[in-house]
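Memo to structure team: turn this sequence into structure tokens by end of day. - J.P.
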Amino acid sequence: MATESKTPSQTNSRGSLSAPSGTAATGPLPAPMTSEAIRAFAHPLRTAMYQYLTAHGSATASQLARHLGESTGQTSYHLRQLERHGLIEDDPEKADVGGRERWWRTVSFSLDPRAFEDPAARTAAAVALRAVVAERARTLQAWFDSGAAAGAWVDVSLHRESTVELTMAELEEVSDAINSAAEPLLEQAKRRAEQQRRAGAPVGVESRGISERRRVRLYLDVFPLALDD
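Reply from structure team:
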């Protein structure tokens, strides 16, 4: 498991100068959630459904109802609310699967702290962010607990923490560089996975006992620390 923790340092160089994606070569970040969307997302059942869809790729209202112990009527209603705010959409790859029932997948979004200035959205934003942080902690802990079952995937995973003094321009440059480098590779992988699914290739195919394809989660936070007291 590739793990790195940088000690605080300083830089005197002068800079030259987005949690589901753009199709441009530089990969623009998803649009920020509106204050209304934040309030809608903060509903506990909607957050739980979004997290399930994120982990499993797509699902129907019935599947979500069974997993969450709710009625299909409840999950269907809340799925429509998530769709209304642009947080989920139909999964075109499953359009002809499951008869009349719709398959849903998540739409990426970003959080703009300026939306929290709306008093009506502030409490909802706090609820939503706590749910996001809790889900991230559960997912990471499950990965760390997987131990030997992770196999060779441990060698290609990455966990890094760095603290460095930057100007605002340098921070923007770092953020842009990370996004610009990662997004084309992610889009390439998405196209490859879609082509393989259309060709009927099984998910999780193994070679010499090692799964060659798995759903992978990327977490990245780049932000300034609080000012010293």
